[in-house]
């Protein structure tokens, strides 16, 4: 089992939660980004620099993530590609993408993109704060526990 982080836009608080859990549980974490990041020095952590360009980090993760892995990403199209492969995907605000909700989430994302592009709505998500950090930590712990139990069976 491996934890993947779509690291280009991942809040540092989320990276901290993941790296601490990975150390505690001796799980490998792969950070994927199109720019250099400061990753703590540890043999459990790897960094994969992909060329700059749309969705190249996503393509790398789709190609390398395996069933039973866990991915942290706010990219809904990436989640839509991974969930059918048996990869657990959690976004930094704590939403877990599942086969039951990924279609709806993708549809809402596409609608909001259309509305933003047409100028009918503006802005983006609310700032990432303590509430979102707690929601992520809770969802991450819950999903990680499920994955580790299923591996132990």
TrEMBL record:
Domain of life: Bacteria
InterPro entries: UPF0178
Pfam families: DUF188
HAMAP family associated with the record: UPF0178
Protein family (similarity comment): Belongs to the UPF0178 family.
Name this polypeptide is given: UPF0178 protein J0M35_17545
Organism: Candidatus Obscuribacter phosphatis
């Amino acid at each position: 089992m491996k934890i993947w982080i779509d690291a280009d836009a991942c809040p540092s608080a989320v990276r901290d939660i993941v790296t601490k859990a990975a150390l505690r549980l001796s799980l490998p974490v792969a950070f994927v980004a199109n720019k250099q990041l400061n990753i703590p020095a540890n043999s459990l952590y790897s960094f994969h620099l992909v060329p700059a360009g749309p969705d190249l980090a996503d393509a790398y993760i789709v190609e390398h993530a395996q069933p039973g892995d866990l991915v942290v990403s706010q990219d809904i199209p990436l989640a839509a590609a991974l969930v059918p492969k048996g990869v657990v995907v959690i976004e930094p605000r704590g939403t877990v993408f599942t086969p039951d909700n990924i279609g709806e989430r993708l549809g809402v994302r596409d609608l909001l993109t259309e509305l933003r592009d047409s100028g009918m709505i503006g802005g983006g998500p609310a700032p990432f704060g303590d509430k979102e950090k707690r929601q992520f930590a809770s969802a991450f712990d819950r999903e990680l526990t499920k994955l580790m139990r299923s591996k132990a069976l």
